[in-house]
Specification:
Length: 327
C-alpha cells in the first residue's frame, strides 16, 4: 500500500527508487506494528532518504507513538509475523541464550519461570527485533535521530496533535525533549513522549469538538506561526480530511490493510492542497461546507461500496467524532 501510493504520487519509479527530484516527502509516523511488513517500510524510508537528498529533495520520516513504543519496549502491537521477519539461522540459539539469562535473573529474584509462556511472549525473532531497535541497532539508531514535529512553509507536520499543555511550546523544545526521553528512558515517566496531550498521542484536534477547540487551535497556530496542522494518528475512515475550516488536515487514511488500505495522500503544490485519492487529484475544501461534496467525489473513485459512506453519514448528521476505526 505504501509503495503503491508513492508510485501514484510520482515519488517512486517502477524499480522502487526516488524519482521526485526536489520534492519533500513527509511521513508522519506509525510505520511499525499491526502487520508483518514494518521492516520493509522502514528500509524503504531509509533508502529514499539518501536518494532524495542526492536529487535535491528530502524525506522527512517523523516519529509516531508506535515508533516510540518500539524504542522503549511497549510491544503490545508487534505481531508474531513481524518478529518472524527478523529471524535468521541463529535465532533459536539466541532465544535459548536470552532465556538462560532471564532464568538466572528470575532465580536470583525468587521467581517461578514458565518456559512455554515465556516463549510465546518472546517468539523467534524477538531478540533480533529488540537489538534492531536498541540505541546501536539499525532502526533504533535511525529513529532516535528523527523529529516529532516539522514545519515546512506554513504547514506544521506531526503525528497526533498538540494538546493545551503544549500550546505555548516550540517545535525545537518538543523535538529536543522527546529526543532526550528516547535516549534516557528514565525521563519518560511524566514526560512528553508518553503524554496523552503530547504530539505523539493527542487526538483532540482530530476527534474533539471543533466549536470547543477553536480557541485552542487559534493559539497553537499563532504560537507556532503556521496556517495549518497536518496530522496522522487518528484514522479518518478512508480519505484525507480537512477540519476547522482547513486549519487541520487529517492524513491517516487507513493505508494499512488492517484499516482498509485506501491509497490516498496529501499533496501540497503551488500553495494549494490536494488529496491524491486513488490516483486522482482532488482539491481540498477550505470551508466546512465543501467537505461533504469533496468526500462524495472521492467516494465515486472507491470500489463500491465506498468506506467513505460511513464518514459522510457521520459528518452529515453533525457528528464531531470520526467513526471508530480501531481494530
Amino acid at each position: 500500500e505504501f509503495v503503491s501510493v508513492l508510485r501514484s504520487a510520482g515519488v517512486l519509479n517502477e524499480k522502487g527508487s526516488w524519482m521526485a527530484g526536489k520534492t519533500h516527502l513527509v511521513q508522519t509516523g506509525d510505520v511499525v506494528d499491526r502487520g508483518p511488513d514494518s521492516r520493509q517500510g522502514l528500509d524503504l524510508l531509509m533508502k529514499l532518504e539518501k536518494e532524495a537528498r542526492k536529487s535535491g529533495g528530502r524525506v522527512h520520516a517523523l516519529l509516531g507513538n508506535h515508533e516510540a513504543m518500539n524504542l522503549y519496549g511497549d510491544l503490545r502491537y508487534v505481531s508474531t509475523e513481524e518478529y518472524a521477519s527478523y529471524q535468521d539461522s541463529n535465532s533459536l540459539q539466541k532465544q535459548e541464550a536470552y532465556w538462560a539469562r532471564e532464568l538466572a535473573v528470575g532465580k536470583d529474584l525468587g521467581l517461578q519461570m514458565d518456559k512455554s509462556k515465556w516463549e510465546k511472549e518472546h517468539p523467534l525473532g524477538w531478540v533480533e527485533h529488540r537489538l534492531a531497535f536498541s540505541d546501536t541497532g539499525v532502526y533504533g539508531k535511525w529513529l532516535r535521530q528523527r523529529n516529532a514535529l516539522l514545519q515546512i512553509n506554513d504547514l506544521l507536520f506531526l503525528h497526533a496533535g498538540i494538546g493545551p499543555k503544549y500550546a505555548t511550546a516550540t517545535v525545537a523544545e518538543l523535538n529536543r525533549t522527546i529526543h532526550d526521553e528516547l535516549e534516557n528512558f528514565k525521563k519518560l515517566e511524566g514526560g512528553v513522549a508518553m503524554d496523552p496531550e503530547g504530539p505523539l498521542w493527542y487526538r483532540g484536534l482530530a476527534n474533539g469538538s471543533q466549536k470547543q477547540l477553536t480557541g485552542h487551535l487559534d493559539q497553537v497556530l499563532k504560537n507556532y506561526r503556521v496556517r495549518r496542522l497536518v496530522l496522522g494518528h487518528t484514522p479518518t475512515g478512508g480519505a484525507v480530511l480537512p477540519r476547522f475550516g482547513g486549519q487541520v488536515i487529517l492524513i491517516d487514511v487507513g493505508l494499512s490493510k488492517i484499516y482498509g488500505g485506501t491509497p490516498a495522500c496529501l499533496v501540497s503544490e503551488n500553495s494549494k492542497l490536494y488529496a491524491l485519492h486513488r490516483g486522482q487529484m482532488l482539491e481540498l475544501p477550505m470551508e466546512s461546507g465543501g467537505v461533504i461534496p469533496y468526500l462524495k467525489k472521492a467516494a465515486t473513485l472507491d470500489p463500491a461500496p465506498s468506506p467513505l459512506q460511513k464518514l459522510i453519514k457521520a459528518i452529515s448528521s453533525g457528528g464531531e467524532s470520526l467513526p471508530s476505526q480501531e481494530p
